[in-house]
Amino acid sequence: MTTFSATDIHTHIVPASFPAYAGRHANVRWPQMAPGPTCRHCNVMIAGKVFRTVTDECWSLDRRLEAMTKSRVARQVLSPMPELLSYWLEPEDAQTLGRHVNDTIATMVDDGAGRFAGLGMVPMQDPERAARELERLMAMGKFRGVEIGTNVNGVSIGDLRFEPFFQAAEETGAAVFVHALHPAGTDRLIGPPAMPALVAFPCETAVCIASLMVGGTLARHPKLRIAFSHGGGVFALVLPRLMHGWNSMKELKEKVQSPAEQARKLYYDTLVYDPKTLAFLIERFGVTQLCLGTDHPFTIQETDPVGAVDALRLAPKEHELLLSTNAARFLGEAA
């Protein structure tokens, strides 16, 4: 099946350059770019060390469009490389960096002839500042919402301290894309540097979703549109266990809405690399809640996202839901 209607909600950008640090704090993990191994690569430098070598698809529209044609994707939603969220910076520094990254995304959206939508970044280490910055972004008319991490310096975003941000997200109609960031448990992993992304990210995302449910964030903000990367991690497997606890523990059932019902109101990307797993997520969460996602342009990306959906052999209407219709609802572009 050939189609170019697909919308990819999980892609990342890195600016081609960063301004020199001009703040007032010492020992700042301010990113910079340095030459990479080829003319099409750069090294993202953080604290003087190579964090990641990236291709020019991170900032070049022409290169992204080439890749989109190969993967049969009509439209990409651009969000920052998660490490750029920089929750470890002082809030004013994170806001300055965020505005540079957001300006890069806005320019790419403007220059993309309708092929791109933007999710910006806000300084979540200062929830009130994050709320005001989100309001500013949404008022610009260039962004559909923001990307945030699963935790802020080790504090789950389900913590009550982040209430100002989520209230602003609901009130402005911002889409919120949640990406695993600095997951817990990496000290126990054995293997190469990629192991946290392969193993710890899915667990981190499941913990985050459960915290948003049990902490009441989702109940307090029923109109919030929020999506989770990597198919929600392992949350689909955790959900029956959470439901057993909800059914058997009075302290949960009296204070928390049914986790299963909450789960079917959230959005999840399709980035699970396996048609059988994707079919399981559809059964668990509903065919209306899955949106195409690839993690383009990083090594871990799904290179044939449309093919992964084609393999499910869904009815045409359901096929289109996964490719584009659900994404339009998540982004606030359709009812």
Which key features would you list for this structure?
335 residues; alpha/beta; TIM Barrel; eight-stranded parallel sheet; 12 helices; 18% strand
Quick structural gist:
The chain has 335 residues and is of the alpha/beta class.
Helix and strand arrangement:
Blueprint: E1 6-13, E2 32-35, E3 41-46, E4 49-55, H1 61-71, E5 73-80, H2 91-111, E6 116-120, H3 127-140, E7 145-149, E8 151-152, E9 155-156, H4 163-172, E10 175-179, H5 195-214, H6 217-220, E11 225-228, H7 235-248, H8 250-253, H9 259-263, E12 267-269, H10 275-285, E13 290-291, H11 305-310, H12 316-330
Describe this structure in words.
- The protein is of the alpha/beta class and 335 residues long.
- It has a single domain (6-20, 58-330), classed as TIM Barrel, CATH 3.20.20.140.
- It has twelve helices and 13 strands.
- Strands 1-5-6-7-10-11-12-13 form an eight-stranded parallel sheet.
- Helix 2 (91-111) links the parallel strand 5 (73-80) and strand 6 (116-120).
- The relative contact order is 0.13.
- The model has no long low-confidence stretch (mean pLDDT 95).
